[in-house]
Amino acid sequence: MAHRWTITGGPDDLPDIAPDQPVLIAGPTASGKSALALRIARDQGGVIVNADASQVYDCWRVITARPGPGDEAAAPHLLYGHIGWNAPYSTGHWLREVTPLLSGGERPIITGGTGLYFTALTEGMAEIPATPPEIRAEADTRPLDDLLAGLDRHTRVGLDLRNRARVQRAWEVLRATGRGLADWQAATPAPALPLSGAMPILVDAPREWLLPRIETRFDAMLAMGALDEVAAMLDRYDPALPAFRAIGVPELADHLSGRITLDEARARATIATRQYAKRQRSWFRGKMRNWSVFRPDM
């Protein structure tokens, strides 16, 4: 791709981007994606659009590191905190919401860590029928091994078998439609935004730079009120709902319920964040080889 480049440095080192060219910014958690998007919006124009599955929920700001009021005042932000805690929301919902933002108005700067959102946007997404509530309820009660055993062979090959949400989604699709997820994906329509029509930037944060940021991040969240945020939702806590799977929420819910100490919650959340960042980095490097690479200056 003609625009592909690799830069090591800070946001000031980024090249100018055509004012009508959509920008995509993907990267692991805690890598500074939001700050990079904000700098581009301030200096080169655009509206920042969320591509993080946990940041869509209105009940979470601190615990998901959603942009704060100061950032939102500095540049327009869309698709952040606009979904209720118990509302259904999927990659398909996000794609339907983001597609109209690609034409007209300010150019979108789409940023987040949910890789499936980016692949749906740039590669297309199969139009799979909605899962009936009774099938989803049944899937919620099944252990991961049962869900894995119920998948078709073609779907298993391309699936992250450790990711319960994706395994469960594949199981639900097969159960509801009689057709494997891989077969549905093979019939994918044209993408809403082909990669050639955007400036795709992958924040490739080195492990030795990223881990210290992760280690201090949860303490910063606690100082900003993360515990109060989770406490306000504790009476509605349901681990089966996607909103309550955000890293830090189960751990703080366990602490608030008296099952673990705050130090244990902090340690578990930090470990979960490190593991998630590792999975993200591996996924992005495998799926986004044609993206321009931005390496934060250490």
TrEMBL record:
Which top-rank group of organisms is this from?
A: Bacteria
Output one GO BP term.
tRNA modification
Q: Which reaction does it catalyse?
A: adenosine(37) in tRNA + dimethylallyl diphosphate = N(6)-dimethylallyladenosine(37) in tRNA + diphosphate
Q: What class of enzyme is it?
A: transferase
Residues flagged as site, Interaction with substrate tRNA: 114, 136
Needed co-factor(s): Mg(2+)
Q: Which UniProt keywords apply?
A: ATP-binding, Magnesium, Nucleotide-binding, Transferase, tRNA processing
Output the InterPro entries linked to this UniProt entry: Dimethylallyltransferase, IPT, P-loop_NTPase
Cite the binding residues for substrate: 29-34
GO molecular function terms noted in the UniProt entry: ATP binding; tRNA dimethylallyltransferase activity
Q: What is its EC number?
A: 2.5.1.75
The entry's ATP-binding residues are: 27-34
Q: Please give the subunit comment from the record.
A: Monomer.
HAMAP family hit by this protein = IPP_trans
Sum up the protein's function in the record's words.
Catalyzes the transfer of a dimethylallyl group onto the adenine at position 37 in tRNAs that read codons beginning with uridine, leading to the formation of N6-(dimethylallyl)adenosine (i(6)A).
**Which family does the similarity line name?**
Belongs to the IPP transferase family.
| PANTHER family in alphabetical order | TRNA DIMETHYLALLYLTRANSFERASE (PTHR11088:SF60)
Q: In its UniProt entry, what is this protein called?
A: tRNA dimethylallyltransferase
Q: Which organism is it from?
A: Pukyongiella litopenaei
